[in-house]
Amino acid sequence: MKNNAFFPLFVDISEKKIVVIGGGAIATRRVKTLLPFAPQIVVVAPEVTGELEELENEKKLTIFHREYQREDIYDAWMVLVATNDPKLNDGIYSVAKCLGALVNVASNQEKCDFHFPGVIRKDPYVIGINGSGKDHKGTAELRKQIEAVVNHTICIGSRESRLAVIQSEMLMDYLKKECPQKEIRLLTMKTTGDKILDRTLDKVGGKGLFVKELDKALIDRRSDLSVHSLKDMPMEVPEELPIVAFSKREDPRDVLVLPEGADTLDLTKPIGCSSQRRILQLQKMYPEAMFQSVRGNVLTRLKKLDDGEYGGLILAAAGLKRLGLKNRISRYYEPDEVIPAAGQGILAVQGRQGEDYSYLEHFSDREGTIAALCERAFVRYLDGGCSSPVAAHAVIEGDEIFLRGLYYQESTGKHTIGTMRGSLEDPETLGVALAKKLIREAEG
Ligand SMILES: NCc1[nH]cc(CCC(=O)O)c1CC(=O)O
After folding, report:
1. What mean pLDDT comes out for the span 142-157?
2. Which sequence ranges form a coiled-coil region, renumbered to this chain (predicted)?
3. Which residues are registered as beta bridge partners of 256?
4. Which domain holds residue 260?
């Protein structure tokens, strides 16, 4: 008497020989379930389905297009019997038992060493489901329910700061509308860049510090997408974690914020600003000013400002607007006064290579994408991804891109600024062309 429930076992079948007798619908389904686990499959059947033939053409399995012979299973580790001849099935079962192979006869639950499970995969998880040979309808229903749970959520990884969360919520709001059948979740985490607050970023390793932990969550499949301020992203992103969408751009300008209640910039106190890019450009505007580094997230910096440590603070308009703090802005610096950081105001959505992110199609913004590619190509060419004070700002004007860039030459401490126009079709070529031109000018 057989036990009424079978034990689930997760077995490495990658080098095992599995012989399938029969080439119909059941055989096909089982072969397709097994193939992703990379066994050696041999199908024996005078006639097989088109799908099996296709798999044979792709060299994913071997087919013997003929009747079964007992030699076929002599070196089989597992035998799956699925012909529509019950007597033949029973005969194959007896031989397989004698040979000591694992055997399953699809049409006869009594003649099975194991049940063939329904398989649900969500890497790295493998879920096998089995109705103990009884309730097929119930098993199919349960399988659907499990699949819905497994594929039900889209999880967004984000830094913990208020601004990062607001930015992630912008994507979540979109996803809730675009994919109403899915549950949209947020996974927040502290990054190394958030933990180290006593040194300027340039000294502790630059932009990568804000993305490492988020990358790890994506790789480990604890999240499905990461939302970043594009300007905080390194120029080279790992191949397995590509940027899958650029958002519509928020105001790209840098701005001045004064302490609560003040209406002029008090230059007897330092201007709070950690970015070499901003300092380099603002020195021209405020030759008598002192600049002092200020770290921490936007709200922390504003607190320091209001506590009287600084005469003013330079921040990105985009962050303040998203935080609902537009009213704190005292002055906007136009891009021809202070060239913004590459990507400033644009959100980058990062995903895992090989996954289907077609649901981001309407989040992705054409102008944002063109500007992002152009500005980042400029900075990448100048190798200024980490800490050197490069700046780039691209806008679409008619059927052209207008790019403004700043190149800083480490060796001489000199910088050059220039502009160039290029085709909408090829934003990266324009970025590289302006970078080359500015290098030539710096050298000539
Ligand atoms: N380095 C921090 C950071 N990263 C992105 C933004 C603002 C939002 C954006 O540029 O998209 C800010 C704050 C700031 O520079 O004031």
Report:
1. 86
2. none
3. 314, 331
4. 254-333
